[in-house]
Amino acid sequence: MAEDPYKVLGVARDATPEAIKKAYRKLARQNHPDLNPGKPEAEARFKAASSAHDLLSDPDRRARFDRGEIDAEGQEMPPPRPAGGWRRHADAASGGRYDPNVDLGDFGDVFADLFARQRAAESAPRPGRDMAYQLRVPFLSAVLGATEQLVLPDGRQLSVRIPPGVVSGQSLRLRGQGGPGRNGGPPGNAVIELEVADHPLYRREGFDLHLDLPVTLREAVLGGPVTVPAPTGPLRVTLPAGSDTGRVVRLRGKGVAAEGNRAAGDLLLTLRVMVGKPDAALEAFLRDWKPEHPQNPREAMGEATP
Amino acid sequence: MMTLELVCARFQGLAPEELRGWVAAGYVRADAEGEALVFQEIDVARIGLILDLRETLALEEEPLALVLSLLDQIYALRRRLGEG
Questions:
Q1: For the domain A5-66, what is the CATH code?
Q2: Given CB atoms, is B70 within the 8 Å cutoff of chain A?
Q3: CATH topology assigned to domain A202-278
Q4: What ranges do the domains of chain A cover?
Q5: Cα Rg for chain A, rounded, in angstroms?
Q6: CATH topology of domain B2-83
Q7: Radius of gyration of chain B (CA)
Q8: Which of B23, B25, B79 has the CB atom closest to A91's CB atom?
Q9: A186 Cβ partners below 8 Å, 6+ apart?
Q10: Touching check for B73 and chain A: CB below 8 Å?
Q11: What is the ipTM of this complex?
Q12: Which of A188, A301, B17, B50 is 20 to 30 Å from B75 by CA-CA measure?
């Protein structure tokens, strides 16, 4: 659940709209993801501040939040529970399910039932506790899906099926793998929090993967087939001719693998033209070369104006 | 019949661990269905009662057990009177 938006922005509950905007701008400046590359915690703070600002900058939604009608994520809150629901059940014949453990004719001790219950509770089936574990998942296992082994503190090994598309912070629940139950109660569950490792080549955005692909000058100018390291293995891709640095080639369905009804993501290649070591023939060619369409790539920067 | 997860989703601020504790202490009854605990409608109403006692009336754990016991005795007597 999202945090209290007032806390996220660090403003009082009666803050003016201007104060809210000011607090948001300050947080946005400090944490904008584009200004903090490689700092996921800054991106998380930025997102939290944005959604808090979204909620509080709309007077109508802010008022509804203050009245408790919607939560910090803007979801409708359930209506308050009416009191007296128990009475309807307890007065019905089915109320016998909660009959006291003593003979009611014996009014000598109204507390006898309490002690009888405490004794009964000690021998009642008691379900086991949920146990929390952490598992570090290799990047490609989270992309393609895999089965990872988790060694528990007691030495047991659990096989954990990782579905494709999991992200850090997500939890998997393994039924019956938690603490043992007592007196015949069911065992608890193992709750496994995942931490997905980074990858030296790929960057994930949702279900798409991004890869910087170095290409030679010849490949960039003439196009043609190149071999790309896709997550599932080497892939032949034909580059279009005349590709500049920064050009993005989308390989459909080569990103995060499909799971259930969700289609596979894409692999996006961003081309990086590598000029390479000095080459006498290339230099000689370029010195004499008269471009067919002379152009200034810095034109849009307004280089001409002093 | 509702599973433990569904019941916890219905009541805000009720943790599964806590509800299991109530079952273990005998405040709430549950039936075992295979490995899972399931709750009848009356059990869900019971949970609502306990939350009311605890949150609205600010009862601590120990007096809560006493109040539940006394309430159960009163309702058992009411049912008996109703039959007569």
A1: 1.10.287.110
A2: yes
A3: HSP40/DNAj peptide-binding domain (2.60.260)
A4: 5-66, 131-196, 202-278
A5: 31
A6: Multidrug-efflux Transporter Regulator; Chain: A; Domain 2 (1.10.1660)
A7: 14
A8: B79
A9: A125, A127, A128, A176, B32, B34, B35, B36, B37
A10: yes
A11: 0.78
A12: B17
